[in-house]
Amino acid sequence: MATHAKKANWLWGTITVAGILGALYAGWQLHTLRELNQQIQSGTLVKDKTYPYLQKFTAAYDQGLHGDYKHAVQTYGQLLELLPPASELSHIHFNIGNNLFISGLVRTVNEDGSFQDEARYAFTQAKISYEQSLRLQPDDQAAKFNLSLLHSVMARGMQAGHKEQSHMELSNLPIGLP
Fold first, then answer.
1. What is the pLDDT along the chain (178 residues), one digit of tens a residue?
2. How far apart are the first and last CA of the chain?
3. pTM score, two decimals?
4. Which is deepest, 67, 92, 135, 159, by most CB within 10 Å?
5. Which residues contact 102 (CB under 8 A, 6 or more apart)?
6. What transmembrane ranges does the database entry give (predicted)?
């Protein structure tokens, strides 16, 4: 009977120690995640290499926030290469669209009121990004709103700029098929 009680005590003691170690590990993880969430909420960059997705996402967001739209779009593109969770893909495309849209808006307009070629290109790419975001998450109201806003901006100034004719003559070149 005494040996049976000893075995039971060892078993319960081992289970108790394993439980305490598991609780300490869970507490450490909770503490780490709270610090990470505080970094994200305060808008600081995540520099912890164990979270490469969050590190790239906060870097891209910070670049866009500081007006570096070209690099923000590139960083979001790199983020897509990390194969993020499917639930995050629409957010990434939405943010790419936002950065391209703002990039097009900050471009200057031509004398006739039409957009420069870079702005037209940025708007076209933003439209593609918003549409991709809506394909992934059709009920996203922010993407729908931004896409409709983009359409209204594009309708006003998307006429092609006037190209000057070249005064170069082409001589001795056959025209048409032989």
1. 677 788 888 889 899 999 999 898 888 888 777 776 776 667 666 666 667 788 888 889 889 988 999 999 999 999 998 888 888 899 999 999 999 999 988 876 677 766 788 888 899 999 999 999 999 999 999 999 999 999 988 876 565 544 454 455 555 555 555 5
2. 110
3. 0.65
4. 92
5. 64, 69
6. 9-28
